[in-house]
Amino acid sequence: MDTIWELDFYSRPLVDENNKKIWELLICDRQQQFQFSKTCAGAEANARWLEAALKEAMDQWRQQLGLANSAQPDRVRFFRRAMTSIITRGGEAAGLVMVPSRRTFALYDWLRDRATNLYPTLPNYQADLATPPQLILPAPQPLPPALRGDRWQFSGLPLGEIKTAGEWELPFGEVPPLPFLTLSDDTLLPGLIIYSQRALPLAGWLSGLEPAYLSFEEEPQPLLVLETGASDRWVLISGRNPQIQKELAAFKDACTQSQGLHFIAVKERPEQETLQGFWLLQQTPEV
Known about the structure:
25% of the residues lie in helices and 31% in strands. It is built from 6 helices and 14 strands.
């Protein structure tokens, strides 16, 4: 399994002695076994500072895990679109592969925990700084031809079965560990299966897009939207008739019951047992 870091670099609801915002770098792995945090003043929040901090994080990570001096994560995911330029330049200067992606589930959990249980306890906390401005997401675009399947089907799998995905023969896909889950293994997770005679190349294209989660739009008609990368959005299913609308509503309700967890799978035919792609996804609130 690839070593993937998840990173956020942004101002926090904290101020320094001059009443200026404090910036914070957070890095964790998908298992939340490695966590790194470092703060700086707003005037220092640039690519050069980030490069040095990333090198410090790698040294700490290598020491903690007993790794060689040349070891480094295979890639680093970050979701904060407003910081794309600084994060990309700082990361690449440190020799890292930086990937805009909302598949930062462990990081989202850590951020929510700090926002609830850490920052408000600090003497320099300012509640009115707690919510950063949210960038407006673009309208969903038509699905690229390479991602269009022959048909689709809603389905469900127990969480315990999905946890065994490491034993499956998957050409493409990812099932993150999600150590913070509180669901039992018999919880049925909803999912969408895409069938295609071009299942393997379709799964390859989907993998390259960094699928994050499936979202829903109600106007002007019900839509199931595939959210990928840092901000890309694709119309996966249009609620063209009452039956499809009913299925979309049932899928949305099931996602609510599963703490936002769901999956998307790619295979050639319904009777085929093997999958060409499988991704565990999670709808996450804004942080």
